[in-house]
Design a protein that fits this description.
With about 290 residues, this protein is α/β, with parallel strands linked by helices. It folds into 2 domains: about 130 residues, 3-Layer(aba) Sandwich (Rossmann fold); about 140 residues, Methylesterase CheB, C-terminal domain (Rossmann fold, 3-Layer(aba) Sandwich). The chain contains 10 helices and 12 strands. The relative contact order is 0.15.
Length: about 290
């Protein structure tokens, strides 16, 4: 099976600290896939456009050797990011989940949630805590209650996708290195009686181990755990739990159910990825993470 490649990546920046790790993630993906990187800043109607030199500085921090396009547009950030992605055939959007705060955030709502609901391409979100940790070599202060995996790491990527998101899921997994220092948990919408073949199909797309999750097993780094058809997948105390609770957002497995559990156990030590828009499942959980 030929792997889906990324040729156009959009990095949405508000020049905040939270954009730092998202910028490095976007730059690394652009290098791996030799993709054009679109750096986009949206000036909201209730805020100033930011320092005049902010965009050149943001581009400089991405490093050399990238094919970079910059754009500053005006309007509601969520809507304008989605519109730009549509106009420019963007294959993936990368953004931080916590940017500006105060009145601007109160009036504008969650930009990431809007992008997740409306974008037609995968959306990779990087929490603010990840940005802070990647910008310093100081010893890490552990979050109270954080759970370590079997391998001694607490990093988790939670991925949610709609029924047509298989190719996008393969693309994200392809980008993860063999020695990825964390576990990957996936809630992919599937038909109720879908055969358990998704894991085998994805094994050809990634160097990580891929399996359908088994209730009670411990999370290990370098392993991708897939929610079985018609069962919710949650994480609890470093273990996988499968439940037959009622559907959420008309879905079982539900992305919100998975993301909510990841947010509770791993907090801002987690990264969330939404693979396709068109529905509300995952938007609430993304905000929780």
């Amino acid at each position: 099976m030929d792997g889906l490649r990324l040729s156009q990546i959009l990095f949405a920046t508000d020049y905040s600290e939270a954009s730092g790790a998202a910028a490095r993630m976007a730059a690394e993906l652009a290098r791996q896939f030799n993709a054009r990187l679109h750096v986009v800043h949206v000036v909201p109607p209730v805020t100033d456009p930011g320092p005049a030199g902010a965009m050149p500085a943001a581009v400089a921090r991405l490093g050399r050797g990238l094919n970079v396009v910059t754009a500053i547009v005006h309007g509601h950030p969520g809507k304008e990011i989605v519109a730009y992605a549509s106009r420019n055939a963007i294959d993936m959007i990368v953004m931080g989940t916590h940017g500006r705060s105060g009145i601007a955030r109160a009036l504008l709502g969650s930009v990431a949630a809007i992008v997740v609901r409306r974008a037609a391409c995968p959306v990779l979100t990087v929490p603010e805590m990840i940005a802070r940790r990647t910008q310093t070599d100081a010893p890490r202060v552990e979050r109270e209650g954080a759970v370590e995996l079997e391998s001694g790491t607490e990093r988790v990527i939670a991925i949610g996708g709609s029924a047509d998101g298989f190719k996008a899921l393969g693309t994200v997994l392809e980008a993860l290195p063999r020695n990825f220092p964390g576990a990957v948990v996936v809630a992919q919408h599937r038909a109720r009686h879908a055969p358990p073949v998704l894991a085998n199909l994805l094994k050809s797309r990634t160097s990580l181990a891929v399996k359908e999750a088994i209730d009670g097993e411990r999370l290990e780094r370098g392993v991708v755990y897939l929610a079985p058809a018609d069962r919710h997948l949650v994480v609890d105390d470093g273990r996988v739990r499968l439940t037959d609770a009622p559907p959420v957002n008309f879905s079982r497995p539900s992305i919100d159910v998975l993301f909510d559990s990841v947010a509770t156990v791993y907090g801002k030590h987690a990264i969330a990825v939404i693979l396709s828009g068109g529905g509300s499942d995952g938007a609430r959980g993304l905000q929780a993470i």
